[in-house]
Amino acid sequence: MRSAEQWFSEYGESHQNPTNKAIHWVAVPLIYLTVVGLLWSIPQPQWMAQLSWLNWAVVAMVPTILFYLLMSLPLALGMLGISALCLWVCSALQAAGQSVLWWSVGVFVVMWVFQFIGHHVEGKKPSFFKDIQFLLIGPAWVIAFLYRKLGIKY
């Protein structure tokens, strides 16, 4: 597996333009949230529904956080915090009687449109066209930038 720095260096090659970077700062975390929301919305089997805290979003987070853990403990902890926040948002939307599914689909589509606009401005294809794992690198790239600003080593 590549190191966090190797991932971020390669990811950063197609994220140099300030407009594209700004779009990614908003779109990447929101896309992560919407993917959590889409997974949250998958109907649960009866055995899973008996555990109020367990759903497909939580199940998918286990290998996701393990992926980040292989990169770096601090990054994994940051992504665990972001993931918990995403679960809380989904729970709050559901408790408010909102459709987590339709909210997630709508925001997902809009954010991907912005992502492709950003890459058009950049003049480079999104990294995930080269390697699908870059879909997991984007959120960690945002966290890593925040860590560097705060002086946190990862």
Describe this structure as you would to a colleague.
- The chain has 154 residues and is mostly helical.
- Helix content is 75%, strand content 0%.
- It contains 7 helices and no strands.
- It has helices at 4-12, 18-40, 46-49, 56-71, 73-95, 100-122, 134-150.
- Helix 2 crosses helix 5.
- The longest helix is centred in the N-terminal third of the chain and has 23 residues, at 18-40.
- The radius of gyration is 16 Å and the shape is globular.
Core attributes:
globular; mainly alpha; 154 residues
Summarize this structure briefly.
Helices cover 75% and strands 0% of the residues.
| Helix count, DSSP H or I runs of 4 or more residues | 7
Order of helices and strands: HHHHHHH
As a whole number of angstroms, the C-alpha radius of gyration is 16 Å
Our estimate of the beta-strand percent is under 5%
In the predicted model, the low-confidence regions spanning at least 5 consecutive residues are none
Q: What is the residue-mean pLDDT, rounded to a whole number?
A: 94
Distance between the termini: 16 Å
**What percent of residues adopt helix (DSSP H or I)?**
over 70%
Q: Classify the secondary structure makeup into a structural class.
A: mainly alpha
Oligomer designation: single chain
Major β-sheet profile: none
Shape: globular
Number of strands: 0
